[in-house]
Structure formats: C-alpha cells, structure tokens
Amino acid sequence: MRFELKHPQVQLLFEDDQLLVVNKERGILSVATHPGATQQTVFSILKAYERRKNPRNGVYVVHRLDRETSGVLVWAKNQKMQQYMRAYWRELVTKRTYIAVVEGILDKKEGQIRTWLTEDRQNYVTYSSPVDDGGALAITNYKVIRENSTYSLVELNLETGRTNQIRVHMASIGHPIVGDRKYGNGNSLSPVDRLCLHAQVLEFIHPATEQIVHFESPLPKEFRKLL
Predict the structure, then answer these.
(1) DSSP 5-62
(2) Cα(46)–Cα(41) distance, integer angstroms
(3) Can 1-87 and 95-201 be said to share one CATH topology?
(4) Tens-level pLDDT at each residue, the chain (227 residues)
C-alpha cells in the first residue's frame, strides 16, 4: 500500500528508508515546546504518517525551524541516522540558503555578519555582541537580490547555525526581518501577516548513499507582494 502525506502545512519533498525531507509552512512548530504539549507539530504529523505504515516506525529530529519560519526540513527515520546527522551536520551540509525580506535599503549589497550570540533561555531571546563576550560565534553571509524604496530581498548563507541567528544578525545591522515581533517591528511596518524568513535551499551529503542531495522550496507568495 502506498501512503501519502496530505497536510496544508507540511509537504513531502523526499523520502527513502532513512530520511524524510519536507517543506514546512509558517505557523507550525517543528516540535513541541514542552513535554505533554498537545498542539499539532511537524513532528506529530510525520510521526502519524510513519505509524500508519507500521506502528513501530519512528521519526527523529535532525534540525528545526522557528514556528514562523517556512522552508525545508530534514528528519531521520531511525535514531542511528539522527545521531550521525546531528554529530556531523556541518560536514554533511554543502549548502543552506535562506531568503528574507528585511526593512530598509542596505548600504552594502553583499557582506558578512560576524558576532557572538548568547541565549537567554529564561526569556527566550538571543543577544548579539560584536566582540567575544563568551557567547557562541555566529557567521552569516548575505547578498541583496532585489530592493525597492521600503524593503530588500536578501539571500543568506549560514556558516554557523545558532538559535535565531539570522533574525538577530539582521536586526543587529539595523535591518530587521519584516514581521519579526521579537527582534524587529512586528507587523507595524508590514502589509503581510508573517515573519518574512524562508529556508529556501538545503543541500547535503546523504549519509547512506554518500551522494549530494539538493532540496529547494519556492519563494513564498507573501514575499512577492512586498517587492
């Protein structure tokens, strides 16, 4: 029997006996924020999908996206694959590209943001420092793709993957992501009701086949409304 994944917020991009790759829409958590939570998440949707095939099947978190960030996510089908991918994530990933709409016009159309980030886990916020203050080094490379008098469409490639890294970095240079309630101006300067951050490309070496696999998610329609 062939099983299909049908959900308005989660679309299956790829599946084999080791991995699941999906496109996540904005507005849904990757995983629950605390044990016992009952809200639907990408994890719960994929777990139900796998359990329909076999009650013993499982799904294991490799990486996450914020609730309001859309785009490509990869999941492991067994714990051994999960542990390997998490341990060697930086070595396996060959390309990880985000697209964002940010406020204003950037003076430098291409550059690198390099700061040290510290998580405040109690208040769920990340702080940025231009000098080493004991935080984790975070590096984001950016390039302006398009702009108008109000917004800029920016391509972002990560050299590190810290919590809220892109959101904090763009805010730190005075160009917060459109719709960012935590680090920017929320929807007060935005005609679209979302955080304009999208994980567009994920390319990595498949641990089982040792071949490079490439996954891409189209630019959200809300972004096109702004530029």
Answers:
(1) --BTTEEEEEE-SSEEEEEEPTTS-SS-SSTT--S--HHHHHHHHHHHH-TT---EES
(2) 9
(3) yes
(4) 667 898 999 999 999 999 999 999 999 999 988 777 778 999 999 999 999 999 999 999 999 999 999 999 999 999 999 999 999 999 999 999 999 999 999 999 999 999 999 988 888 889 999 999 999 999 999 999 999 999 999 999 998 888 899 999 999 999 999 999 999 988 776 778 899 999 999 999 999 999 999 999 999 999 998 98
Pairing of strands 197-205, 151-158: unpaired
Instruction: For the chain, give every domain's residue range.
Output: 1-87, 95-201
Going from the C-alpha of 51 to that of each of 44, 78, 105, the distances in angstroms are 10, 13, 48
CATH architecture assignment, domain 95-201: 2-Layer Sandwich (3.30)
Strands 125-129 and 136-147: unpaired
Active-site residue, selected from the candidate residues 17, 66, 120, 132: 66
Yes or no: say if 38 and 44 are a contact pair by the CB < 8 Å rule: no
The CATH number given to 1-87 is: 3.30.2350.10
Query: Does the annotation mark 66 as catalytic?
Result: yes
Cβ burial, residue 147 (10 Å; 0-12/13-18/19+):
middle
The pTM is what? Answer: 0.91
